[in-house]
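protien #1 (seq + structre)
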Amino acid sequence: MNQALKEKLATYQKRVERGIEQLLPTASTRPERLHAAVRYSMEAGGKRIRPVLVIAASELFPSQADPLAAAVAIECLHTYTLIHDDLPSIDDSDLRRGRPSCHIQFDEATAVLAGDSLLTYAFQLLARNYTQQPSLAIGLVHDLATASSSERLIGGQMEDIDNEGKPIDAETLRYIHENKTGALLTAALTMGLRFCGPSAEQLQQIEAVGYHLGLTFQIVDDILDATSNAKELGKPVGNDSASDKSTYVALHGIDGAYREAKKHTAEALEAAEALGGNNAFLLDLIGDLEHRIN
């Protein structure tokens, strides 16, 4: 990662952390155990790629409002998926971002409810903070709700579970990852761009960026699960193989997965360049995500 990208990313990440601190209920809010679990999971760190993408996309062109609440909302929704993914009934993972998973730190019932709370709070944030821009609020809610729906994120997760231990073809694998991972990354970009009052064509263009970026992101995740270690990754590794999960590594091998990641990175860069605007940071970030460590 070059120094300019590193500094800009750190600036965005600090802004997101401040937003999380300011916009979430305090850990002492009743019921305290629930809100402590919400805070524990939201304050666990991570690169904050989705909220960063919201802010970066909002700065491509002149913006109508502050995107911070939308950025925190998408991180709330993302964190809910992580809490639920880690549960014994799904991925049964004891470690998340280098710390005990929510259900290990608290208990399974609290983790389920903490995830539920973050899911609903995401939309509460959007409704509360953009009342003065109703068309913007509707667009933000539409993007986040659609991306996290039974036909997108949750649907991708369901098909991932259903295909464990089964032979899988390239189309099914693409469907799983386009929806399980790509949908929310795409929503981050469309939500951010909505702050600029975009045309339908611009929204379509940034959706193409998100589609290819999402696939790259998931392919690299698959590679890291097969090649990294728990200390570097901040979560258990080898779970995909142990669970017979559908991955690009399982279907294409390590070298083939790398080739797929490079192909989708190139497509994402091409779409981002065509969109134009203040896109230097976005282009650098897309290029760097292919080479991320975790």
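ok now protien #2
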Amino acid sequence: MFGLAAGTSFILYLHRYTWVMVRPELKTEYGFSEKELEGLYTLFSVTYGLGQIPGGVVCDLFGPHLFLGVIIALWSLALPTVGLTGTMTGLGASRLAFGATQAGCYPSLAKMTRLWFPLRGRTVLQGLIASFFGRSGGAMSAMIFGLMLGAGLSWRSSLVTLSAIGVVFALLFYALCRNRPEDDAATNQAEVELIRAGETSKEDGSRVLSFRRAIRNRSMLIFAGQQFMNAGADYVYSAIMASYFIEARGVTDKIVLGLLTSLPLWGGALGGIAGGFANDGLIAWTGNRRISRSIVGFSGKSIACVCLYTSITHSDPMAGAWLLFATKFFSDWSQPTVWGTSTDLGGRYSATVFSIINSSGSVGGVVTPLIGGILLDRYATQEIVAGEVTKIVHYEPVFLMVGIMYLASAVCWLFINSTDSLDRPDNMDTT
């Protein structure tokens, strides 16, 4: 089950982060402006955000087995449709479809980790699934795409190849996954008791979270604001990183481009592992789940802010990439904290709580790229290069915006109480 969850997270990011390599190809082939490209990027986040809560509710009601098996296949089939047309309408429809089909994945994986993994050590496993395998998929996406382009494959054929991998994995997932340990004939009662040890909430009773109950929880509201900043800031890695190294750092070799673009994501992958161990280690040491979550979340985002501002002062592409590696390491150091806090706050409603949080992140994923596109166009300059007038795009304003979002996210973690569970009797509706 761990392998299936990790593989799902890997495939999700392997496919999602193809955009960072497709974006420069679309710009070259069709001459789209920065604002148009960021507009296309944000369409993914529109349907991704709108589909979060319905996906979480469906998963809480029926479990992750069938739901995840179907959506993995659907998003894999939607992936290469971006290469079927060069019109804004067609490309927009492709991005909308891709976002809608990926929407329910992480709420379902949050539910899956709560049902299958013991409370003690769960955050380490969530860090591995969400950050290490997810970010590794994103990192490998840029590297694999760069290798395929360097080998002479077109970007469209590269998308089809990655799509086929996803369809095969979807069939494997459906064949092997089970909703709960109790549903798996290979799991005995002693294993079930081990997995359930320390749980304070059960899967009986109502499986649908009241929206009223959710919005009355102060920590839930601050958590949603934190995720707006957290996910919104991530857009630079999934959308413009390749363009940044091409235009601001002069990288032209496709294989080198794939490597440099992937380095920040490898930082995120390793940071997710470290953050998971930091969470569970601090909880065991302090005995205080609330303070431990806040310390890890605050420290990660604060250090990431410092590393980001340092990275943009270096003109050497490799040095800049390694500093972005450090930035993403500490930014994603807090990613297991997001998963752990979702399961702490949600209890039996983990998928729904995670879907609400991810919806907030998706709003950030819509707003931030649109602002980023405006900034890139606004601060672009015309310069004479080799006797020709050339548009020079300046990325510093976008990185400044992202650093501010990191800092705001860090402050939010100081006010989030992960133990204020929506499963507690005093948090239940009385009407």
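DSSP finds 19 helices and two strands in the chain.
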